[in-house]
Amino acid sequence: MIERADQLVLEFVSKVADAAHGRMRPEQRLDFVRRVRERVDEERAGSEDAKAVARILARFGTPEQLVDREARRLAGQSGESPQTRVFPVDDAEPPRRRSTPTPPGVMHYRQEARRHLADRGGRKPSAFSRIRDAAMAGGNPMATDGKDAWSIFANNRRETIGLGLFVLAALLVPFRLPTVAIFPVPGLIWAVGAVVVLASEGWVFNDRLIGLSAPVAAYLFGGAGLALLRFQGDLPRFLIEFHGVSGVMFIIGTAAGVTWLIYRLFDPPPAPPSRTLRVTR
Question: Where are the transmembrane segments (predicted)?
Answer without folding.
Answer: 160-177, 183-204, 216-233, 245-266
